[in-house]
Amino acid sequence: MSLLRVTSPHASGLGKVSAVMRDVLLATVPGVLVMTWFFGPGTLINLVLGAAVALALEYGVMALRGRDPRVAISDLSVLVTSTLLCIALPPYAPWWLIVIGVVTAVLLGKQVFGGLGYNPFNPAMVGYVVLLISFPIQMSSWALPRGLETVPGLSEGLQRVFSPGSIDALTGATPLDLLRQNTGLLFEDLMTSRPELSGWAGLGWFEVNLAFLLGGLWLLYRRVFTWHAPIAMLAALGLCALMGYDGGSSQSGGSALFHLFSGASMFAAFFIITDPVSSAVSNRGRLIFGALIGLLVYLIRTLGNYPDAVAFAVLILNFCAPFIDHYTQPTVYGTRKPTP
Amino acid sequence: MRVIHDIHGGIHPPERKALSQPGTLQSLALPPLLVLPLRQHLGVPARPVVAVGDAVLGGQMLAEANGVMSVPIHAPTSGTVRAIESRPIAHASGLEDICIELETDRQDQWVVLEGMPDWRDREPTMLAEQIRSAGIAGMGGAGFPTAVKLTPGPQRPIELLLINGTECEPYITADDTLMQCYADQLIEGAMILAHILGADSTLIGIEDNKPEAIACVQAAVAKANASIEIASFPTKYPSGGEKQVIEILTGVQVPSGGIPADIGIVCLNPGTAVAAREAIVEGKPLTHRIVTLTGEALSQPCNTLACLGTPIAHLLQEAGWASEVRQRVIHGGPMMGFAVSNLDAPVTKITNCVLAPTQSELPLPAEPKPCIRCGHCAEACPASLLPQQLYWYARAKDQEQLTTHRLFDCIECGACAYVCPSHIPLVQYYRAAKGQIRDSEQERKRSDNSRERFEARERRLAEEVAAREAKRAARKAAAQQQAISGGVDPVQAAIERAKAKKAQQGSSE
C-alpha cells in the first residue's frame, strides 16, 4: 500500500482567491446601481463591454504564455480589473475608449509583468491614466445626472457608445471640476449657484459615494482587507480639506464633506488602494500608504490640472510601496527592545 | 487572577478533539515485536548495552546515554533482543535509523525498581541525573533531553516553572487525557521539577477548551495542598508553542535566538512532569506514553497508553483502521505533524498522536495560485513575520533579505499556509530556505577555514624566507664588520689559506 507523503500543514482553511475577487465584484453592486440610477445605463454598458474585452485578452495571453487559460479566468481577477476601470470611466464613453483602456490595463498593467500577483502598479489605474493623458476631452465629459437631464434609455445609451457623434448628448463638468474652475464665489455660494452642486457633494455624487462606502464596509466585514489603508486615506483627505477650508473663501479647497463624498473618494478608498498586490504589505505600511494617497489626492485636486487625482496618487504611491515596506517591517516576536 | 495576554495572529481551525474521546484510556494488545530507535530525542543517539539474543526484563536499560545531549533507552516489557539494525522510523525525512528490536515474551517481568519518595531531602543535581537515567526527553514533540533543561546553570536563575498543557493542535488529546487520568501524579511531578529547578513559582497553563482537565488538575492541586497556580486562556492555534504560551501567561517574550531560561522560565510538557514523578518516586524509567489515535479512517479512535516501540501499523489496526486509496497517516497533528512513509515505524517518546484522516476530512492541498499579497498570512503569523515577503525572497533565494525579514524566527506552525487563499505551501518554502541558508553558512565556514589555512601557510613560508634572508644578511654584516674592525678581510684570508695549502701540497710531492 502506498502512503501519501505531503508536508505540513495538512489542514487548510476555506479561503480562495476567486472568493476574494467575487466578494470585491459583489461589493461594487450598490455603487454601480446608484450610478445607473443617476447617470443611466452608461456604466453598465462600460462594464459589459470591458468585461468581454478583458476576458478575451486574459484568455489569449495566458494561452500564448502556455498556461491554462481557464485557471486564470476562473480566479476572476481580470474581471475585477476591468470592473474597477469601467466604473471609473465616464458613462457613454465611446467604445474605443473602453477597449483601449482595458487593453492597456490588462496587458500593460498586468500581463507584461507576469500576470496576477506580479504587477507593481494597480492595473485599472494604469489603464485610467493612459486614457486620461491621451484622451482628456472624452475622459472629462461626464454625463449629467438625473434631475438635470433625462437619463437616456438603453438603446440611446448604446447608440451614444457605438456611434459617438450621431447624438448630441449633453455632458458637463463634475462637481470637482466646477470647484477647481471657481475663482470668485465663496464655497457656500458656489454650492448654491449651480444645480449640479445641490446636495452635500454634488447632485448624485454624494449617493454614489455613499453606496461605494457601503460596499467597502461590507468588504471590511468580510475581512477581504484591513481597515488601515482606506481609513488612513479618508482621514488624510478629510484633514487636508479641513485645513484648506479657510472658512469657505473663493480660494478654499472645499469642505471636508465635499472631498470625502465627491469624485472617486470612497471608490478609491475601498476598491482601488486596497489592491493588495500593488500596495504596502504591513499594516503600518498601509497606514502610511493610505495617508499619503489622501494627501496627494487633495493636493492634486486643489492645485493640479486634472479633475480627479486618485489615479495619479495611487500610481505614485505604488512606486513608493517597496520603499515604505522597507521601513515598516513589523516588530518580530522576541526582537522587542526590553522595557527598562 | 493572572493577566492573560494576547499573542499576535493565530487561527481557529476545526478542533475535532471530541473524536478521540479525551479523558479515557483504551488498553490495546501488546505487539509481538517492539522497535526502539536509539534516537528518540533531540541530540546524540544512545549507545546499545545489550547484544542480540540477550533476554531482558522490563525497565532494563537497553542503550545508555552518550554524553550530555543524550538519554538512555529502556525495555518497555520483558523479552529477547532480536536484532540491532537499521529500520524505518517516524521522521519527516522518511529515512531509517538504528533500532533495537525486542521480541516480547508476554510475561512482562520487570527489574526491581527503587524510587525516592523522600525526594524533598535529595540534592537537585542528583534528582536531575536520575531523570536523565530514566531516559526522559520532552514529550510535547521536540524531545529535548529534560535533564539539560533542568540544569540551566547558576547564571540563569529560574523563577517560574511553566507546565504547558495547552495542546493547541487540532485532534490531539493526549495531554488532555493525561491531565484527567494522572492529575495527582502531574502535581507531584510539577513539585519535583520545581524543587530541582529551585523555581519560586509553578504555573500550569491549559487552553479553555479542556474544562474537564482544568477541573481535574484544580482538584489535584487542592488535594495536594500545593502552591501551584492554574491558568486557562482562550483557545487559539498556536498558543501551545513554547514562546507563545510564555507570552500569553507572562506578557514577556523570549528574546530572538534565546531560550526561556534566559528570562527565568522553564517550560515543560505535562507528560514530562508525570514521567519525572515516576522516575523519582517509583524509580520507573520512561517506557510508555499516551498516544492519541484519531481520524475518520479509524472506527475506534481513542487514547491509549502505548509501549514505546509499538509499530504504528499495530496501533492503527487495533483502532479499527479502514485504509483508503492514497491514505495519509500523520505523526502528530494536522498543523505541524509529518506524513509517515512507512507504517512499520514505531511510537517514540515524542509520538503524541497518530492521525489517519479520510480524504474528505483533510482534502489534498489545492493547486497553488499566484500570491496576491492579501496579507492574511501576516495577520495569522504568531511571530509577527511577513510571510508573503518571506515567500518572495525564498523563491528568489535572497538570503540577505530572508535574514533581514527574520526567517529564523519562524516556528513553522503553518498558520500562514492555513489561511492562504492561493494555497501556497508557505512552510515548505521556509523549511527549504532555512536549509539552504544553513548549507551556505557551512559552505562559508568551510571556505573561510581553507582560506585561513592557506593564508597561514603563506605567512609561514614568507616568514621562513625572511628568517633565512635575515640570517644571511646578519652573517654578511658580521663579516664586513670583522673586515673593518680587525683589518683582516675574511675573503682575502681564505684565499691566502688556499694558496698556502696548495703550496704545501706542491712541496710534499
If you had to describe this structure to a student in words, what would you say it looks like?
The complex is a heterodimer of chains A (340) and B (509). Chain A is an all-alpha fold. Chain A has two domains: 16-172, no CATH class; 174-327, no CATH class. Helices cover 60% and strands 1% of the residues of chain A. Chain A contains 17 helices and two strands. Chain A has a two-stranded antiparallel ribbon with strand order 1-2. In chain A, helix 6 (95-108) crosses helix 7. The radius of gyration of chain A is 21 Å and the shape is globular. The mean pLDDT of chain A is 88. Chain B is elongated and about 120 Å long. Chain B is built from 14 helices and 17 strands. Chain B has a six-stranded mixed β-sheet, sandwiched between helices. Chain B has a four-stranded antiparallel β-sheet with strand order 2-8-7-4, with no helix packed on it. By secondary structure, chain B is α/β, with parallel strands linked by helices. Chain B has two domains: 19-109 and 123-318, Rossmann fold (3-Layer(aba) Sandwich); 366-509, Fumarate Reductase Iron-sulfur Protein, Chain B, domain 2. In chain B, strand 15 and strand 16 (338-339) form a beta hairpin. Chain B has helices spanning 124-133, 146-150, 174-181, 183-197, 211-224, 242-250, 270-282, 312-318, 376-380, 387-395, 399-404, 415-419, 426-486, 490-508; strands at residues 25-26, 33-37, 47-48, 55-56, 61-64, 73-74, 79-88, 96-104, 160-165, 201-207, 228-233, 265-268, 288-294, 302-307, 330-331, 338-339, 353-355. The relative contact order of chain B is 0.12.
| Unreliable parts of chain A | none
Total separate domains of chain B:
2
Bulk shape of chain A: globular
Strand order of the largest sheet of chain B: 1-14-13-17-15-16
- Into which percent range does the helicity of residues of chain A fall? 55-70%
Strand content of chain A: under 5%
The coarse overall form of chain B would be elongated
Give the helices and strands of chain A as they follow along the chain.
HHHHHHHHEHEHHHHHHHH
Q: What is the CATH topology assignment of the largest domain in chain B?
A: Rossmann fold
Biggest interface goes to: A-B, 44 and 74 residues
Oligomeric state: heterodimer
DSSP summary, beta strand count of chain B? 17
Query: Can you count the helices of chain A?
Result: 17
Query: Residue share in helices of chain B?
Result: 25-40%
Radius of gyration of chain B: 32 Å
Main beta-sheet strand count, sense and barrel state of chain B = 6 strands, mixed
Instruction: Look at the helices and sheets of chain B and give the structural class.
Output: alpha/beta
